[in-house]
Amino acid sequence: MTTYLITGGAGFIGSHLAQVLSARGETVRVLDNLASGKLQNLEPARQGKGEFSFLEGDIRDLATCREAMEGVDYVLHQAARPSVQRSIEDPLATHSVNATGSLNLLWAAKEAGAKRVVVASSSSIYGDVEPADAPKEETLPPRPLSPYAVSKVAMENYCAAFYKVYGLETVCLRYFNVFGPRQDPDSPYAAVVPKFLFALNSGQAPTVFGDGRQNRDFTYVDNVVAANLAACTAPEAPGLAINVAAGVSHDLIDLLEVLGELTGGAAQPTFGPPRAGEVRYSLASLDRARRVLGYEPLVDFREGLARLAELARQGRYLS
Ligand SMILES: NC(=O)c1ccc[n+]([C@@H]2O[C@H](COP(=O)([O-])OP(=O)(O)OC[C@H]3O[C@@H](n4cnc5c(N)ncnc54)[C@H](O)[C@@H]3O)[C@@H](O)[C@H]2O)c1
Questions:
Q1: Which of 6, 42, 78 for a ligand 1 pocket mutation test, highest count of atoms within 8 Å of Cβ?
Q2: Which range, of 18-32, 128-142, 155-169, 247-261, averages the lowest pLDDT?
Q3: Which of 152, 179, 207, 278 is deepest in the core (most CB within 10 A)?
Q4: 218 close to 179: Cβ distance less than 8 angstroms
């Protein structure tokens, strides 16, 4: 029996990982301090075939990481203080969770002899590159524009060093704008897809920061789950950073138009000032993901949004 530790498993992406692994009959342990995660997100994983346990705790505490790591084969490290905006308001808090917390976790994994640690990194580490519309390849040097992006670069550097120095197998997956059910629509730091969807569904005008022509490689959560599972065993993956995305970008005005069609909501936005720390264009190269992980996006932008709009219509967005 294989045991997976999912840090941040009560959050958006972590809860999908927990659900899929538990449905496959794997042993799943979730470590989460419920800072932004919710116990309710874990219900599908609890009902799966596999043995499931939840440890409420903080990755900033090494003893907690050690306790969580006992008997673990694979670690899927999702716990973080997400959001570029939050990191601008409080960079120390972002650093302590995303950088120091990740270091604790790697140290505990190394001590316990975990087989592999797959971590959630971010497309934000690329910053703005020239030419702006070129797909971002993993070989580009990181040019972080925000404390959040810096904290993810630090985590990636620790992962690379742990692989080189201790032989702990680590893989960094650089997620590009993930969306899907359970992503929090209510927080002041909510991501753009749930914010727009819920604004349209309640007849409110969505707010666009900037001119709306900034684009993102929006990635449905099922693609991210598939990439994580592949990254646990792919022989060439250790020591690498690998993009996880759809490989197509859409700007915010496109996003609003598609959501408007799918929901029948009025899509007239109000415009606010551009936000500091955010990149303007974001498109992933998937060459490495395809080669190393055998990755292929399963669900594209429109299909993902259609699934999401339908779940929201049925009142099952959080289920
Ligand atoms: N959603 C995206 O578009 C996206 C893009 C790039 C990278 N990521 C990364 O993916 C991961 C998951 O993001 P998400 O969108 O599911 O966010 P989320 O906020 O839903 O999940 C993060 C989880 O980590 C938990 N957590 C926070 N601090 C913790 C701590 N100190 N100890 C233990 N648990 C803690 C939270 O309670 C939450 O359950 C994060 O590492 C994030 O930086 C997400």
A1: 78
A2: 128-142
A3: 152
A4: yes
Cα dist from 67 to 30, 102, 115, 233, 254, whole Å:
12, 15, 17, 24, 46
List the structure tokens of 97.
């969770």
What does the pLDDT read at residue 278? 84
Give Cβ neighbours of residue 127 (< 8 Å, ≥ 6 apart): 142, 143, 144, 145, 149, 279
Per-residue pLDDT tens over the stretch 214-252: 999 999 999 999 999 999 999 999 999 999 999 999 999
Instruction: Kindly report, residue by residue over 3-12, the tens digit of the pLDDT.
Output: 999 999 999 9
Q: Judge whether 173 and 118 are in contact, CB under 8 Å.
A: yes
**Global model pTM greater than 0.85:** yes
Q: Are strands 215-216 and 250-251 parallel, antiparallel or unpaired?
A: antiparallel
Does residue 238 contact residue 163 with C-beta atoms inside 8 Å? Answer: yes
**How far is Cα 175 from Cα 77, in angstroms, rounded to an integer?**
13
Spatial distance between the Cα atoms of 191 and 176, rounded to a whole number of angstroms: 12
Beta bridge partners of 183: none
Residues within 6 Å of ligand 1 by CB? 7-8, 10-14, 31-37, 58-60, 78-82, 97, 101, 120, 122, 175, 177-178, 191
8 Å CB contact between 173 and 242: yes
Active site residue 148: yes
pLDDT at position 287: 98
Ordered by where they begin, the domains of the chain are: 3-179+219-247+278-298 (3.40.50.720)
- C-alpha of residue 83 to centroid of ligand 1, in Å: 9
Kindly state the tokens that stand for 204. 């409110």
Q: State pLDDT tens for residues 143-154.
A: 999 999 999 999
Is the per-residue pLDDT at 37 higher than 90? yes
How far is Cα 119 from Cα 133, in angstroms, rounded to an integer? Answer: 27
Atom of ligand 1 nearest to the CA of 148: 43
